[in-house]
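Raw record, unedited: 3-phosphoshikimate 1-carboxyvinyltransferase
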Amino acid sequence: MEHHPSAPVIPLSVARNPGPLRGTIRVPGDKSISHRALMLASLAEGRTVVTGLLEGEDVLRTADAMRALGATITREADQWVIDGKGVGALQEPADVLDMGNSGTAARLLSGILSSHAITSFMTGDASLRGRPMRRVTQPLAGNGACFATRLGEKLPMAIIGTGEATPLSYCLPVASAQVKSAILLAGLNAEGRTRVEEPVATRDHTENMLRHFGVGVDVGLTPTGGRIITLEGRARLVARDVVVPADPSSAAFPIVAASLVPGSEIRLPGVGLNPLRTGLFTTLREMGAVLDIENERVEGGEPVGDLVVRSAALRGVDVPADRAPSMIDEYPVLAVACAFASGTSRLRGLEELRVKESDRLSATVALLKANGADVRVEGDDMIIEGRGSAEGLGGGLVETQMDHRLAMSAIVFGLAAEKPVLVDDTGFINTSFPGFVSLMAALGAVL
Ligand code: S3P
C-alpha cells in the first residue's frame, strides 16, 4: 500500500474502553531483525530460509530493494527464501530505490551501497524524506563513496559507491543502531578492519546476525560501558536459516493496553528479549506492572520468551537517559501508561525522538494533551502528571503524522480511557504491525 500525504487516509478510527483484554496473540516478527535478515541473506552466498519475517510495509520495501540489487527473494508458504549474490556482487538497480517510511531500510542500505561499485538513487515517503541522512552520509563518505542529497542532507539522494572502499573507524556521535549498522555493513566490502565505537550500547542485531552468517565480529567494552565493534572486510557470508522472534516493540502496545485495562490477562508467545531492547519491560515493572516471562530460550541467536501480562495499578516513574537506546521506539506508548499512572513521571534524554517517523516528542505531547493528560517538555525530558485513573481522560482527536507508533499509542490510550479516542489515519500501522487492529479485537478490544 502506498501512502502519500495527498492519498486518501484510512477513515477515522475510534478506540473505546472495552471489558478486560484476554487471550493469546502472536505479535509479528521483529522489524529490525527482518530488515537485517533480508539484507544479509542477499549478501550471502547460497540460500537462506527466513521464518517469522515481518511482512510489514517497511520490510517489504527492503525486500524490493534487495531484489532490485540482484538477490532472488520469494515467499514460499509462510517462509521467505533468499538466494544471495555475495558481498561485492550486488548489481546496479534499474530504478530509484523507494524505502517508503523506513529509516532503518534507508540507513542500513546506504552502508551496503557505499561499498559497491554501483550508482543508485534512493527516496522515501514524505516522512522519510524529512529525516536526517547526514548521520550516515557524513561517515560513509570517508570510505570513498559520494552522496548527492537535497539541501539539509535529505532524501532523495544519489549514491555513487566504490568497489575500493577504505575501512572506517568511527565513534558514534548519537546513540543509533542504524548508523552503527550502516558502517559495519559498508565494512563488509572494504579491505581491512572496520571499527565502530558506541559510547552507549545500542541494539546489536547486526553484530549477532553477521556472526550467524559466519563473519567474525569482535566486541570490546570501553571503561565507561560503551562498546567497540570491529570486523575484517572482504568478508564472506555463508547462508544460514534465520528465525525471527516476535517484535518486543510491537508487543509493547498490547502489553501497555493489558496493564491499563482492569481485569486483563494476556499471553504473548515468542517475544524477543534481547537486553538491548527490553528497557520498556524494566520500566513497566518499576511502575508496578505485572509482566512475567515464561519459557525463556534462544531462537536464531536471540533470546526469546513467552510474556504474560496482567492489569495492575501503575505508579509514575523516572526513566534515566541512558536507558533510552533500549526502548527508543517505546516512549509514545510508555507516555500513555504514565498518563494513567498515579504520580509524576519523568522520561529523560529524549532528543532522538525528534527525528523519528514524526517529531515524536511533540507528537506524543499533542496525543496526551488532546486527551486530557497533563504533560510538558523541559529540555529533552517529558514530564507527565499521571491521573491515577481513567477518569476524564480521552475524547480527543489524534493526528498520527505518518507515524505508525503514534497511531497504535492513540488506540491504546482509547482502550484505557473513560472517553473514546479518535485517530485520523491508522493506515501507517501496516509499516510495522500488520493485523494490529484484528489482533487487539481478538483480545476483546472495541475498535
Ligand atoms: C533501529 C534503530 C532505531 C529504532 C528503529 C530501528 C534499527 O533507530 O528507532 O526503529 O533497526 O537499527 P536509531 O538507530 O535511529 O536509534
